[in-house]
Amino acid sequence: MRLLRVILLFIVFQVSAQQGGMWIPSLLEGMNETEMQSLGSKLTAKDIYDINNSSIKDAIGHFNGGCTSEVISPKGLLLTNHHCGFGQIQSHSSLENDYLKNGFWAMSLEEELPNKGLYVEFIVRIEDVTEAMLEGVTDDLDSRQRQSKIDINRNKVEKNVKKETWEGIKIRPFYNGNQYYLFVTERFNDVRLVGAPPSSIGKFGSDTDNWVWPRHTGDFSLFRIYADKNNKPAEYSKDNVPYIPKHYLPVSLDGVEENDFTMVFGFPGRTNEYLPAVAVEQITQKVNPEKIAIREAALKVIDANMKADDQIRIQYASKQARIANSWKKWIGENLGINKSGAIDVKREFENEFTKALKSQGKEDEYGNILENFKALYGEFEKVHVNRYKFIEVFLSTNELMHMMLRLTQMENAANRSDDAFEKARRSVVNRLKGIHKNYNVKVDRGVYEAVMPLYTDNVDVSIYDKTAFVNLDNALALLEGDKASVIKKLNNDAAYTYAKPMVMEFFNELEPKFQSLNTKINETQNIYMKALMEVMPKERYFPDANSTLRVTYGKVNGYSPRDAVYYNPVTYLDGVIEKYVPGDYEFDVPEKLLELYEAKDYGQYADENGKLPICFLGTNHTTGGNSGSPAIDAEGNLIGLNFDRVWEGTMSDIYYDPEICRNIMVDLRYVLFIIDKYAGANNLIDEMKLVHPKKN
Ligand code: ARG
Ligand code: GLU
Question: Is the distance from the beta carbon of residue 467 to the nearest atom of ligand 2 less than 6 Å?
């Protein structure tokens, strides 16, 4: 009897101690369902994912391919982050109608703003197509043969899928190409902006608070999906009507307490949890520092200009946020990898792997994997670092160099054929128009001066005085005429002749070398993954994130980042006021919010202690792409909106440490409070289904 108790206790401990992982929603039955329920969930696997009945997954939409969003009303009202709708909010903003600064609220359907190009995609169903995709793929094939076999299989699978005419399909590799899943999707292209708080709420704390806890950001915005009269996806039309969803999330007014179950449902972008130690070492010690240095140099220039000029602030808002976000994340990632000793942990794990190979007599089959990694990464280092330096300068930060990159591609196309040239010219023209929509020569020139010396000794600022491409009209004029004359004019442009040799070197040398080594590394990673699952089957394997729908779960939990420090898992409006710096570009607070705080006018949104909750922490394993994902309670109600991770745990894309990895969510009661009390948009609150799961 006692023995049984001990065994049971052990099992329970094992299960509840397990954390981390991003799981495939169609495969939750069994291990995941049991784990979730041991953490307090009352949901079954079928409540979450079902293809015969509506289920929670029907409310979860991929927002423009990057973020996540969820339907929260029977009229297609959609919730996502402020930073996910940022581009749309920016595009409707001007000095006269500064929605970035002041917020935007549609008080009726007529006032909702259409967004060209924006789409939301739902998952209709998921199928395991591993067998069909890997049919005839044998170990003796080299990578080219393997790929062509897989391509043929893919065509066959795609042809045989049963789907409605308006539905789409996607096939994605999992476990480094050891499994394949097919997704039938439904995409809506008429998605309108409904509401956004001012940046002083939606982006409160900006870069200083980004990736950091304690956090006080109301990072949300609202959209609405429109469909045709038959409730089917349709391009934008005045005649479209609000979409009636298969499922929408009820919103809980009861909030969370420490240790409550939470589940985050969304589209995590990319993780690399099974890299060998040599790879993690190279990424964090060689590649990250270079990328960080280049972005830091660019940001210094952009930030100073944005602070000095409102026009530049609006123009560069999205660009700056994009550059700053990864910059700060990489710094945190490096700190976390060092602090957690991740590289040593990985080495230790690799020793276990080697031992397991020996004891199972599988050295012949898999014994050279780690050696291969070591040799490959050794060869890879220089190319790896230089490729990312090029990308940071010529794609991520400096826009004149970005234009030169595209123009060089156009000249290469011109050498192929007239058709290729015409196609490339159209695409360059569109790109130049896009860049110049939000372009300031002074800022870009400053960025050039700051980042170029980090890439080459060949720096020449005078190209900015001579080139046609810092002015859209001059640039478009240069691109007019027949092929020969355009190419001739191009090769007389100072910026072009300056950049072309560097771009050509990238395309002719750096990139091919990178791709060929990277292919070999991926092949080795494919075999390593297979070997791990075979010789150490008791480990907990979840597939790396790949922008497909996943479930991650955990509980509300604080953490201890360093000796004697413990962070509570919940923040309150009082904390916003503590951080308040009047007039500051990061920590200003809108007048109206100060008044509501003074009056303690929180309505039904206050916590039991009378305070207004802002954000909370959980142990859910999330990554970029999980922005805007719903945090769901034990009964399937919406309680939070995921938007970030804590500084000490940003390395979770490479190494998940349950002690310090936490995701950050906005408390839904703060979202409701802003919509209701701050914006007075009761029309929106009335659409939602507010529930009291705990008080019933
Ligand atoms: N760090 C969060 C994410 O990765 C929020 C980013 C918001 N952008 C910003 N620069 N504050 O997307
Ligand atoms: N903010 C991130 C995003 O845009 C999510 C936070 C994270 O990377 O964990 O998806």
Answer: no
623 CB near ligand 2 (under 6 Å): yes
Closest CA to 400 of 458, 450, 453, 439: 439
11, containing H or E segment: helix 2-17
Predicted pLDDT of residue 144: 87
Q: Is 309 left (phi over 0), alpha (psi -120 to 50) or beta?
A: beta
Cβ 624 under 6 angstroms from ligand 2? yes
209 flagged as catalytic: no
Give me ligand 2 centre to Cα 624, in Å: 4
Q: How far is CA 25 from the centre of its chain?
A: 19
The pLDDT tens digits of the residues spanning 395-453 come to 999 999 999 999 999 999 999 999 999 999 999 999 999 999 999 999 999 999 999 99
Cβ neighbour number for residue 12 with a 10 Å cutoff: 11
Q: Is the dihedral of CA 466, 467, 470, 471 positive or negative?
A: positive
Q: Please, are residues 323 and 295 in contact by the beta-carbon 8 Å criterion? A: yes
Instruction: For 569-588, give the secondary structure using H, E and C.
Output: CEEEHHHHHHHCCCCCCCCC
Candidate from 318, 325, 652 with most ligand 1 atoms within 8 A of CB, to mutate: 325
Q: How far apart are CA 152 and CA 145, in angstroms?
A: 11
Nearest ligand to residue 212 Cα = 1
What residues are in contact with ligand 1 under a 6 Å CB criterion?
83, 203, 206-207, 210-211, 321, 324-325, 624, 627, 643-644
Secondary structure (H, E, C), 530-551: HHHHHHCCCCCCCCCCCCCCEE
Distance CA 527, CA 532 (A): 9
Q: Strand ranges (DSSP E) for 255-353?
A: 261-266
Task: Pick the catalytic residue from 93, 199, 627, 652.
Answer: 627
Q: Which residue has tokens 């090029």?
A: 390
- Tell me: cis bond preceding 512? Omega within 30 of 0 counts: no
Question: Which residue of the set 62, 82, 83, 216 is catalytic?
Answer: 83
Nearest atom (ligand 1) to Cα of 645: 1
Q: Beta 251-252 vs 690-691: how paired, if at all?
A: parallel
**List 50, 219, 544, 667, catalytic entry:** 219
| pLDDT score for 696 | 66
Which residues of the chain, if any, have pLDDT below 50?
A: 1-17
Using an 8 Å Cβ cutoff, are 292 and 327 in contact?
Answer: yes
Ligand 2 proximity of 530 Cβ (cutoff 6 Å): no
What whole-number distance in Å separates Cα of residue 3 and Cα of residue 255? 40
Structure tokens at 267: 């589209």
